[in-house]
Design brief:
- By secondary structure, the chain is α/β, with parallel strands linked by helices.
- The protein contains nine helices and six strands; from the N terminus they run βαααααβαβαβαββα.
Length: about 230
């Protein structure tokens, strides 16, 4: 019987693309203040064009070049800091709110998420979800080498919760890295949520990386848990 449901954050409890848009808008506003000859909307549009084109590792470099804004390493680092430390404009989707409300009455709930620590904490605060979780594991607090697929975050979280692996499930979105550790540790189930607007659409690179179940909406999760 499942006793503990551990959630991923990005593209699991909300659409990560909303955070990306919020961050790029914050950077555009910052640049507009130092380059008022350009409109903030024009700067954002240049960022968004790069993002939607798939050039996500070079968004700022490419956009600034097209906008005619000179840049160097120091400027790039400052823009990344603005992105990471901005107060995100996010809202919790109705299906996420409903499932957290319902499951919190029946299961131990927890959160395990990778990512830059202040940014992840700001996301949780903006979504207003901390109250649902008995414990939150920000793997960055352990060290970046313990990001998924490392099992260490899962091991420490389950120890804190006093939850046996076989009574836990992990609900996440990224087939490249999210399910390797819980599968290897012997979790009761690994559940992939395939949100329609998700950013990452990787196929599992190996059998151990495959989720044992897939759902398209968190509204399907409660019934699935009842069957496990």
């Amino acid at each position: 019987m499942i006793s503990t449901v551990i959630f991923d954050l990005d593209d699991t409890l909300y659409d990560e693309i909303d955070y990306c848009k919020s961050g790029l808008q914050a950077v555009a506003q910052c640049l507009w203040q130092s380059h008022p000859v350009l409109e903030a909307e024009e700067i954002f549009d240049a960022f968004w064009t790069e993002f939607t084109s798939g050039n996500r590792g070079k968004i700022f470099d490419n956009a600034l070049k097209k906008l005619g804004i000179s840049s160097d390493k120091k400027i790039m680092e400052s823009l990344i800091e603005v992105y990471r430390l901005h107060q995100p404009s996010l809202s919790l989707p109705d299906d996420s709110r409903a499932i957290l409300e319902n499951l919190s009455k029946k299961y131990i709930l927890a959160l395990l998420t990778d990512g830059y620590l202040p940014a992840q904490q700001l996301k949780v605060a903006a979504l207003g979800i901390e109250r649902y979780f008995k414990s939150i594991m920000y793997t960055e607090s352990l060290g970046r080498e313990f990001w998924k697929p490392s099992p260490v975050g899962f091991e420490k979280l389950c120890a804190t919760l006093e939850s046996p692996y076989e009574k836990c499930v992990y609900v996440a979105d990224n087939s490249k890295k999210d399910f390797i550790a819980p599968n290897s540790l012997g979790f009761g189930a690994s559940i992939k949520i395939a949100r329609g607007n998700r950013i990452h659409r990787f196929r599992a690179p190996s059998k151990i990386a495959r989720a044992s179940h897939t759902i398209s909406s968190l509204s399907q999760l409660e019934r699935l848990l009842e069957r496990l």
